[in-house]
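Re-running Alpha/beta hydrolase to confirm reproducibility after the cluster update. Everything else is unchanged from the original entry.
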Amino acid sequence: MQDTKIYSYIFKPQGKIRGIIQIVHGITEHMGRYQEFANYCTNHGFIVYGIDLVGHGKSLYQGHIKGYFGKEGSWENVVNDVYNSYLQIKEKYPDLPYYLIGFSLGSFIVRNLMIENRSLKINACLLLGTGYQSPILLKMVKFVVKQNGKKAGEEHSTSLIDNLAFKNYNKKFKDASSNADWLLEDKKARKQCLPLLWTMEKDVTMRSS
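Result of re-run:
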């Protein structure tokens, strides 16, 4: 959403800095979930940097909908948020090796970012939990999203899209308490995730499926 303040995190090592690792988190979570990984990286000399995507973590403000990026076309705003955060940290540390990690939804954002900004000065890119949907399945999901959006409005939350996107991932979790349990086996860490329901925003839902 335009004019929304984006919360950023930076973890710095003590002593010599070896490089920068920027993380783009996935859906139903936030950068706070990467605290343990960030501590490991800083102990080995790396700066860890990232933002809470709009609608997630500390970039979710009162009156906003969990996981909602905004109206149609807002996907580009989210990609730009990540790009601008890259520019900010790169300007401050222009000569350090730069590594970019995208997890799940974050991996699609990074893929989009890499395609649109070929001038990115990074040393390596790691995509975790990324994927590819069959055109037929994607077409069906888009149709369902569009029809539900017409009926209830694009800002309406629905368990239907949540189930379509994540329910099958939870089959191996007998005591699953939400559709996000598949993200982590560790129950304590799982509680740090941000459970949410999909909204009917066409562009975001289609691009992140």
